[in-house]
Amino acid sequence: MGMQHSPLTMSRILDRGATVAPAEEIVTATATGTRRQTLAETRDRAHQLAHALRGAGIRPGDRVATFMWNGSRHLEAYHAAAGMGAVLHTLNIRLSAADIEYIIGHAEDRLIIADADALGLLEPLAGRIASVERMVVAVEEGFEDWTTSIAPAVDYEDFIAGQPTRYDWPDIDENSPLGLCYTSGTTGNPKGVEYEHRSQYLHTMAQCMTDSMGLSATDTVCGIVPMFHAMGWGIPWSALMLGCKQVMPHRFMDPRRLVELMASEGVTLSAGVPTIWQGVKATVQADPDAHDLSALSRVTCGGSAPPASLIRWFHDTLDVEMIQGWGLTETSPLATLSRRLMKRKHLAMSLDEQLTNVGKAGQLMPGLEVDIFDTDFNRLPHDGESVGEILIRGPWICSEYYRNPQPERFHGDWLITGDVGTIDPEEYLVIADRSKDLVKSGGEWISSVDLENHIVAMDGVAQACVVAQPHPKWDERPVALVILDPDAEISPQSILEHCTTRFAKWQLPDDIMFVEAIPLTSTGKMDKKVVRADLEAKNYVLPDLRP
């Protein structure tokens, strides 16, 4: 007889959470506290938004942009666009005006839903984004007196008011576009990655597996990773499907406020980049008994590798499992994950061995293939030593960029990730570095990430950034920028001595500079392009501090 051929569209799973757990809450941080609504209310409002968008002329396939922090209205936009077949284009609030102008024009967004407190960042684009016909403005406490000159504008609440609370979701092809996310390109213009319904449906199922993030309806989820980064790492979709309580930090991203929010709402699972978790650690260390984080069971860390010392601190101090994930905007983004227990045999391992595994990028998600290749695209052995270009393919991996094929980023049906690394005999992927962030000295590679993690493991070091600097003899040499904890008494020499415990003399940094801050990219990673450019602008000359 066979099975029904039901298309894998997101509309089939998005209403489920509100159906099975209508009274669970979506909690959004505000200037003075929190704003709360139930899953049933959130679903009804999403259906109203879909009707309002339809009334504004939006049809399946049209791009609807969001310029928003993580909050309940952003979640409603996810839900409404996916249900009605529009394409949700999440604009990155942290990009430059020039990049945002290019992205809106390239995507041909017809309507923008923006948070009132972010409107100022869009105002320089007035008269420059011709495709945008309408602005819908979501107003949070303190921003009631908003104005915009971008396009005819309406308050979000007025826009959806009086609309029906049920929208009969249309049948669309499962390969129809669902979302559009632009990568903050390292060179040239940002590139668009289009997510289809089928790809995100499968990604959502994989994310909820016990051995991946183990997301459950019993969880209280706090997605700190912005919903404008790779669809919030897919967490908004998964949590809507399951019926989790969701906690949204909006623009309030300082570590103390995040810790207060997680403690007061009983958050069990959270997701963010390493700089977020370093900030949480510092907040807890400053006042260990101030916040009850006993409900927290696991945090997912992605964007760049967390230092081993941070993984260990979360385990020892908070009894929290740090899950490392690796992926890109182009991989939707979940590609590999590393948990403390990934295999049955790990039950017999010591804690040290288990946590060492968490320091690796992880094991590939079911349904994907990942491998390492030499420059001629020959596969390399999985011996933990052969370093190659990491390529990946599977049902939620980008096959070309939106309106910009870029064939050099693909090899057949493989995506060339731009990362390099090894695969060990246990089938763990280990990222050596972004190709561009390796330091090539005298024909040998030095991993800036390995040096950074080792330096950060020192007591008193808050953050470390290692970049290559040109050298007349060795081609390049590593230089370290270091942020110290407020009262730390550490010399460059003591850092070098610490590094000699693990690195050969030729791998040690030629210079160690203490700095107040390290520039970050729009995704919260250290921006090594800016660091290198700053050094160049200062006509920096390499000393040699090495013993």
Structure, described:
- Strand 24 and strand 25 form a beta hairpin.
- The protein is 27% helix and 24% strand.
- The protein is of the alpha/beta class and 547 residues long.
- The strands form five sheets. A nine-stranded mixed beta sheet has the order 2-1-11-10-12-13-14-15-16, with helices on both faces. A seven-stranded mixed beta sheet has the order 7-6-5-3-4-8-9, with helices on both faces. Strands 17, 18, 19, 20 and 21 form a five-stranded antiparallel beta sheet that branches.
**Rg, please?**
23 Å
Largest beta sheet: what is the strand line-up? 2-1-11-10-12-13-14-15-16
Number of strands: 26
Structural class: alpha/beta
Shape: globular
Overall pLDDT confidence: 93
Proportion of residues in helical segments: 25-40%
Q: Count of helical segments?
A: 16
End-to-end Cα distance, whole Å, is 76 Å
Instruction: Give the biggest sheet.
Output: 9 strands, mixed
What's the short version?
Helices cover 27% and strands 24% of the residues.
Features:
single chain; 547 residues; alpha/beta; 16 helices; globular
